[in-house]
Amino acid sequence: MSIKNNLQNIKASIPNHVTLVAVSKTKPVSAILEAYNAGQHVFGENKVQEMVEKHEQMPKDIEWHMIGHLQRNKVKYMASFVHLIHGVDSFKLLKEINKQAKKHDRVIDCLFQIKIAQEVSKFGISAQEVSKILSSQEFLELKNINITGLMGMATLTNDETQIKQEFNYLKNVFDSLKSRETFNFKPETISMGMSGDYKLAISCGSTMIRVGSSIFGARNYNIG
Ligand SMILES: *Cc1c(COP(=O)(O)O)cnc(C)c1O
Question: Pocket residues for ligand 1 (CB within 6 Å)?
Fold first, then answer.
């Protein structure tokens, strides 16, 4: 199946209110261009340098999403163009994003990454920590970020019941935070679901899915 066909099939199977982020990490510009020419203009990358290089080479109306774990010292390289940062997992990181966004006179949209998986390796913060951040005076001083929702990654398992529990948990956290809206916290997005579980994620309330291999084929990390 071609990239175009894969995209058409996925688009046809998801509701209109769900945003498809095409995860192009490790894939060459030629593959991204094929998706772009098929009408896909939202792409996700998990490494800043790779995203910066692709941004330079690709049409400028693409929305670039940073979906990976983010180091504070890398924020500056993408602050001029990044559309949405999915993996905000600390207040320190949020403050750095705010600082870099300010330099470019921008407001950068972000999602809090909530730890929903059981694996120790998955990043994210707890609902309690998010609640604490939202309550702090310092948060209200961040004028150059806007938290538009939450992101989560389920445990890598074939156990659908467990995945569903984790997605439901994220949806519950989202619902419980909705009433906490401020000028820089406007929750409307739940980013959850990947190639293997996006249909389940949508049934649990996802509004944004991050799909890579089902569009571009399997990734080969050895040859990049
Ligand atoms: C790689 C990645 C995806 C996409 O995974 P697929 O299984 O290829 O769809 C989604 N989200 C994050 C955070 C990723 O790193």
Answer: 23, 25, 46, 67-68, 153, 194-196, 210-214
